[in-house]
Each structure stands twice: as C-alpha cells, then as structure tokens.
Amino acid sequence: MPKEENAHKWTYFFGHKKRGKVATDAAGILPDYKGILVHDHWKPYFKYDCLHSLCNAHHIRELEFAYDKEKQQWAKKVQDFLYETHEEVENNGGRLGYQRAKHKLKEYRALLKDAEIECPEPPKIDGKRGRTKKVKAEIS
C-alpha cells in the first residue's frame, strides 16, 4: 500500500471467506502495523503487536444500552464524563495539561469503582466449570 500524506483518512475494504485473524492477516495491513490501532474491542485485533485504543463511539453506545435498557446508573455517569471530557479537550486545543489529565483520570477511576459496586461480578457457582455468565453492562 503506498504511503500517502492523507493515508490516515482512508478506509480499506477487503472481502474474505473467513472472519477473524485469518481474514485480517490476508488483507496484509495489520500483521506489520506498529501504530495505534483504534477499534471496537473485537478480540482478534488484540492478537496484533501494536498499541491498542478502544473506540469511544462504541463505549458511548454500550453505556447508552446499559443505562436505557438495564437501568445501570453508573453507565450514565460514565457517558456524561466522556462527553464532558471530550468537550474540555476540544476547548483546550486538543489536549489537557498534565495536572488536569491526572485529575480526570482520578475522577474516571472513581466512576469505575462506583460501577463495580452497582454492577458487581456474579458469584461463582460451586461445582460449575468455566466463566460465570456476565450481564451485558458488567465492567470487564
């Protein structure tokens, strides 16, 4: 694939009979990619040796589902936090200073602690193998 000045704006569509890593390997981009891969948390993407960033648009939709359909109050708080933080970053030229970013991270972690209280992991069932089924809104 040619290196172009505006390559970061491109979308590459690739059809394949398979899904997952087999198909993405065949497309020939991700196996050698060393940048930041922004994605929707699809497990095959994590098999690539690059930096991963999860897409906040997907987070927003999942938080909306957790709040609207499952009445999880923590989800609304996290969603509001993401919107407010995005607006603050935009209003500050695309970044926050070190101290402000540190404060926002502390605030975010406190919201996640509240989420774990409201939506705890289900208890292990004695004698049952495998992972315990999670609710859609569970923090993982």
Automatic annotation (TrEMBL):
Domain Transposase IS66 central, residue spans: 5-114
Name the InterPro entries for this protein.
Transposase-related (IPR052344), Transposase_IS66_central (IPR004291)
Highest taxon listed in the record's lineage: Bacteria
- Annotated region Disordered: where? 120-140
Sequence intervals crossing the membrane: none
Name of protein: Transposase IS66 central domain-containing protein
In its UniProt entry, the species of origin is given as Parashewanella spongiae
